[in-house]
Every structure is written in C-alpha cells, then in structure tokens.
C-alpha cells in the first residue's frame, strides 16, 4: 500500500536504458542505484517520474501536438472514428461517455489497443477483435502514433527489467509466459477546461475519476504547463503529479500488484483539470500477454509467509471487464 509520501520521486533511468540487455547490469554501480530507487518508489508511492528514458523530447511533444490538433476538429469529424462494439472498442469517445465508478468523466479520448485478429485468442479475444481506427486528419497521425507505441513498448520492457531486479528476481522474470508478447493499450485524452467556456454546463469537474490501472506499467505523457494528475497517499491526501518537462510519469498497475502478492501495490489516482486551458495527455499501458494467467509468483508468496494474499486473473478477461464497465453507449 502507498505510504505517506508527499512528493513523487524522479529517477534518471539512463544507466538502466544503456545496460538493459547486459546479463549482469547491476555490476554497474549506476544501474544498481537505479534499481534501488525503483524499489523504493514502487514500495512507497507506486508512481515515479522517469528521465533519461531515451525517447527524444521532440517526439514526445509532437505526439501531444498532433493529438491536440485532432481534438480541435469539429465533433462531426471526430465521430468518423467513433468507438463502438463493432470496432473492438477502438476509436473516439465524446466527452461524458467514459464512466469511472458510476460517474461520467469529463474528457474525450481515442482508445487504441494492440491488434487482435479473429480467432487469435478464441472466445477470450472476440470482444477485442479489430484494428485501430486512426484519423486521416491530421495527416501522419497513424504513422506517428504507431512509432510512438513501439518506442513506449521498448522503454516499458527496460523499466520492467529494472523492476524485476528491484524485486530480487532475474532480468526476464516478467517476460516469457507473463509478458513475452505484451498486450498494450493507448488512451489519447483531451480534458476540457470544465470551469471555462469550453464546458460551461459540465455536471462535474472530474476529468477522470479515482482508479488504479489494470496492467503492469503505465507511461503518462502530459502537457508541460497544467497540473491535473493527482495521486492518493495512505493518509488520503491527493499529491499533485506536476509536469516535469522531459519526463514520463510512470506508475505500476494491478497485474504487478497481483504477481508480487502485494509487495508492490497499484496506487489510486485521478485527474482534475482546474486550469483555464485544454489539457492533453497520452497514456500508454504496458500489459501482460493477452492470454496470460496472472497470479502471485511463488517467490513472493514465500516472502509473504506462504499465503496468497491476492486472487489471480486471466488478463484478457480482466481487460474486457474493465472496458465494458467504463463505456456507456
């Protein structure tokens, strides 16, 4: 469980990115220090900023910029890629369609997932079968996003290797049958200034209600000049995740919590855009294999006194449950 942290730690993961495929990376004292920092951040906050990640800042900014261009389009244009069951729940959502714990969220979004081909996972994958709906306007949207997804996938694998070392396991502990073929999701989100002219009749000012993420690891690419993301500590205080230019906000999710038997825990967070400006955020979610059976790993059960504290889950079923319970048609 998150502690009484008052700020979110910043970690320069450059040494880990450099040595991520070295069979003994912690022989480098710089990597060993990163591993210690990751362990402390995951135990105490479940959230941390990462710098030294290797994704050029120009690309990070361009992703936000092209997302903003899409959200600036007339509603009719955006609805050309409207999300529906027929699209495998991929595409555009209008403001107030997404629901968190029974409350409508004040944001619009494009949802994208790793492609699921017909029959790929049998009945388990039917609901999510489909290809992503990318807008033709603005131009190059698809190419930029697919390149960005590839970069985030590689970065997440490197960070997760550092987390494996932080937990005392081998580098590839979370690969193979767990996440050797990781599923991923991307949510491209626009938060209107609900107290301003953009949303004068908003029923609340909650951009996204309090929740935990369901996967392994999340990378948040947020606007540099608006503080809206908030993280809850054990005392119930909401700690702002203020933007730090050049970084990603990274947090761990429910699947990592289950596998570590609660040694690491996913932390509750929410978004409230009280700024007079429209806010853009692109969240990348690194998940297990779609058909992975996620349960506490034996090494963590032993550390916890021999008892499984958490129930396991089949990732695909868990994902579908989350998707169907957050969308209203």
TrEMBL record:
Keywords assigned by UniProt, alphabetized: Cytoplasm, Dioxygenase, Iron, Metal-binding, Oxidoreductase
Transmembrane segments: none
UniProt-recorded name of the protein: 2-oxoglutarate-dependent dioxygenase
Biological process terms in GO annotation: coumarin biosynthetic process; response to molecule of fungal origin
One Gene Ontology cellular component: cytosol
Pfam families assigned to the protein according to its UniProt record, in alphabetical order: 2OG-FeII_Oxy, DIOX_N
Subcellular location: Cytoplasm, Cytosol
Family: Belongs to the iron/ascorbate-dependent oxidoreductase family.
GO molecular function, one term: metal ion binding
Major subcellular location class: cytoplasm
Domain Fe2OG dioxygenase: 182-288
Catalytic reaction annotation: L-homoarginine + 2-oxoglutarate + O2 = 6-hydroxy-L-homoarginine + succinate + CO2
């Amino acid at each position: 469980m998150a502690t009484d942290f008052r700020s979110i730690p910043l970690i320069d993961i450059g040494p880990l990115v450099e040595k991520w495929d070295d069979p003994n990376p912690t022989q480098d004292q710089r990597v060993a220090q990163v591993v210690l920092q990751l362990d402390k951040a995951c135990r105490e906050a479940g959230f941390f900023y990462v710098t030294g990640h290797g994704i050029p800042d120009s690309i990070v900014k361009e992703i936000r910029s092209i997302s903003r261009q899409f959200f600036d389009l007339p509603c009719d244009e955006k609805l050309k890629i409207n999300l529906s069951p027929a699209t495998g729940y991929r595409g555009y959502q209008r403001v107030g369609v997404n629901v968190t714990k029974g409350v409508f969220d004040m944001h619009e979004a494009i949802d994208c997932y790793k492609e699921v081909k017909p029959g790929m996972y049998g009945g388990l994958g039917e609901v999510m079968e489909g290809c992503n709906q990318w807008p033709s306007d603005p131009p190059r949207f698809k190419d930029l996003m697919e390149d960005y997804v590839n970069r985030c996938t590689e970065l997440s694998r490197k960070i997760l290797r550092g987390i494996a070392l932080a937990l005392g396991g081998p580098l590839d502990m979370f690969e193979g049958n767990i996440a050797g073929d990781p599923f991923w999701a991307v949510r491209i989100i626009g938060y209107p200034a609900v107290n301003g002219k953009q949303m004068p009749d908003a029923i609340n000012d909650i951009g996204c209600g309090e929740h935990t993420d369901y996967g392994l690891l999340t990378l948040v690419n947020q606007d540099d000049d608006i503080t809206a993301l908030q993280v809850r500590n054990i005392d119930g205080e909401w700690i702002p995740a203020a933007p730090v230019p050049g970084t990603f906000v990274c947090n761990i999710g429910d699947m990592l919590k289950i596998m570590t038997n609660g040694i690491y825990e996913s932390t509750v967070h929410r978004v409230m855009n009280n700024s007079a400006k429209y806010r853009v955020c692109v969240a990348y979610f690194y998940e297990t294999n779609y058909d992975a059976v996620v349960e506490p790993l034996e090494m963590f059960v032993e550390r916890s006194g021999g008892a499984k504290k958490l129930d396991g889950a089949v990732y695909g079923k868990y994902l579908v449950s989350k998707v169907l319970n957050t969308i209203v048609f």
